[in-house]
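Chain A, query sequence.
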Amino acid sequence: EGAEIQAGNRGGRGNAGDVFIAAGDRIFFNGLFSDGFASGIFTGVAPEGIGEAGDINLTANSLTLSDGARLQTKSEGLGDSGDVIIDVEGEIFLNGKEENPQPEFEHLTGIFTTLETENFQRGGDIQIETGSLRIINGAEITANTFGLGDVGNITIEARDSIILDGINDRTGVS
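Chain A, predicted structure.
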C-alpha cells in the first residue's frame, strides 16, 4: 500500500521523465498508504514547473489496479500532460472497491491524464490495447482538464470484451 514509481518536475525547468515497464507476467498496484498516497505510477509537473509531464508506457500479460491505486500523468505548470500507453495481452482489471476505507483521503482507482493549468496546454492521451478490460466498483479511465487547454483522447481496443459494472459507494461513479 502506497508503493509508487514517480518521475516529476517539482518546480524547476525541464521535462519530467518517462516511465517504461515491460513485465513478462503481471503488473499489480493496490491500496493507499496511511498518509493517503496512492499506489501506482505518476509523472507530473508541479505548479511552479516549466516542462512536459512524462509518459507512462506499460507492457505486460495482465494489469490490475485496485483499492485506490492509479496510473496518472498530470501537469499543473507550464507544460503538457503526459500520455498513458498500455499494451496488455490478457486482462486489464480496475477495481474501485475500498478494501481499507480511509474517508479523509481521495480514493480513486484508475487511469488518469490530468491538466490543471492557467495557461493553454494539452492534456495527455490514454491508449489501451488489451485482450479484455474489466472496470468495476467505480474505477475510472479519465482524461480531464481543470484549467485551460484541450483534454486528451481515450482510445481502447479490446480483442475480446469490455465490461463496466458497479459504482463506488462514496462517489457514486460507475
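The mean pLDDT is 90. The longest strand covers residues 84-95.
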